């Protein structure tokens, strides 16, 4: 059975929702960032990066949200979470998720995880100051050029949707006004009504 | 025919090498960062992110290196550039490439592209100062935990290999001593002997 290691309010929620959408048999294990469990030897044996998410499968351990989402889509093809038979459409899905991972999430991370890239406290404060602008620019591009609607890829619901929803949840905390982005906001509210999303959030909030 | 937009000394080299490995029919278009061509309307019509690489295919335009590499592997299956028939092994390939994209490349980008995340010149200087440490920590993890050898995934050559090679080329510029990482250095020297790699580099250097 799949075991998903997650922490609350992290990008692990995307894979959690995708497992629900896939009707996968899985269990979750919560890692406490407050207790720094992600840096303890027990967890580093699972994920030496000391980050979440990590997913233990029958074949081994996976990390990195875009890879985990693609794995879920390919392992549960009946759930139709990606256009698996068309390399171009599948690549479009992956390109969207890669942008979320390497640009949107990274812009956001400069608010809370600036120590990854700088030591000086004044420089960390300067990083935090620009987060509303840099994260806002990402959502502006998503709104204008990437989100086709009603779902990210248009009429088909894919593994892009839980991932966008997860990162869009961070907008207010990042000082970005969601009302600037009506398509993203509409996507977010439709996502939050899905039973799969409610179930994943309820479990993580319990 | 595939058209690859690249700039010299960028991660576009990974896709360029992969196209060579796939024996794909393709052409390349060089974008000059010195002339800021990536921000001109002609290029923004191709890639609104204003970044390289971008790849024009018969079906549309793709961006994001991990997605482009997976597309090349899936579009030219006879080149056997990824374990396409095994969702777990394919996810391992993708997880490695996602780490390069979202963590290694991002750590490196704090040397030259700090303005993405901060405005203050002193903070940009502080970012540059930590790059040898943060990039070095990434290669330390790759050396100890990720690179199986002789290729990234072990005995099979995959789309992970040109991508690792491309980012490892930046180590000296980032102030990281390659001799700390014998497996990565061995991988790099074996990669640089491949005819496909020589051809791609020669074309970009011409």
Overview of the structural elements:
The structure is a homodimer of 206-residue chains. In chain A, strand 3 (54-57) and strand 4 form a beta hairpin. The mean pLDDT of chain A is 97. A 4-stranded mixed β-sheet of chain A has the order 2-1-3-4, with helices on one face. Chain A has 206 residues and is α+β, with helices and mostly antiparallel strands. In chain A, 52% of the residues lie in helices and 9% in strands. The first copy, chain A, has helices at residues 12-21, 41-44, 65-75, 87-112, 121-146, 160-168, 182-192, 195-205, and strands at residues 2-6, 26-30, 54-57, 60-63. Chain A starts with a strand and ends with a helix. The longest helix of chain A has 26 residues, at 87-112. Chain A is globular and about 50 Å long. At the A-B interface, strand 4, helix 3, helix 4 and helix 5 of A face helix 3, helix 4 and helix 5 of B.
Write a brief structural summary:
Chain A is α+β, with helices and mostly antiparallel strands. Helices cover about 50% and strands about 10% of the residues of chain A. In chain A, a hairpin with a 2-residue loop joins strand 3 (about 55) and strand 4.
Number of strands of chain A: 4
By oligomeric state, this entry counts as homodimer
What Rg of chain A, in angstroms, do the CA atoms define?
17 Å
What does the largest sheet of chain A look like?
4 strands, mixed
